[in-house]
Task: structure prediction
Amino acid sequence: MLFRSKADVTLDAPQVTVATAANYTLDATGAAVLIKGGDAAAPVPLSAGGQLTIKARTIEQDGVLRAPLGSITFNATESITLGDGLTSVSGDGLTVPFGFTTGGGNSLSYIGAGNVSTPVEKAISLDANGKTVTVAAGATLDRKSTRLNSSHG
Result:
């Protein structure tokens, strides 16, 4: 899913998360993106394998941003700043049901069969086009693993 903005964007939420196997792109090329707010102690969402890409002139991450067992990519033309927030692709300690609903939520389809022991993809990527990436002392980047459960017996 693609979201475009020519204006600056602020995401202020208890936590910004990505749905299971979803692919989101926020394209604010030429503008600034600020992520703020949140509680790092909030429960990790039961989702897995989602991807979030943010493209902007500057990206400032001071909030709680999660894509459990997925990927988070920041592409900036000027700078990326990781402040005192949490940027996480971890689902550590969780057994995540890996599937999706169909038929208006009446049916659950599982991706694969049995337990998936290797995450679909798990990465945090920071690309400031050869310019500035700043990581504050209080910034947390979390890539811990977990176990996916796609058994449906």
